[in-house]
Amino acid sequence: MTEPYLPPKSDLEDPRELNLGLGVYIVAVIIVLLSASLYYWMYSVTTKFMDVFTSFNTELPAVIAVLVEYRALFLILGLLSFMPLSLLFLRRLSYKVKSRLFKSIVLSGVLAFIGTLAFHWVLYELMIDTA
């Protein structure tokens, strides 16, 4: 027998919880654009390094050779960073799923920034070793 004094419960979600707020969407777009531009920058730098070394008819250092070999990965990562953003704008997703998507966008932005720092460090060490 059900308790007569308990309020009825519904399986429907509260419509106020379905929106994250405009600020979250703006931050997500900015993070995705920055991370995609960082990945594109890494792609273009590796391509320019390859052009510079081939113009002098010298061999690429091992680290740069690996980066040049897999430079298309930077473009793929840049394009993949748009995927959670496109899913974030779907209206049918629950608040919990949207908040997880936002967290994944922030994580991908942090990883792009860390990857860029590591990329800088490798290039800096390479320039010190060759100088």
UniProtKB/TrEMBL annotation:
Keywords: Membrane, Transmembrane, Transmembrane helix. The chain crosses the membrane at residues 20-42, 62-89, 101-123. This is Uncharacterized protein.
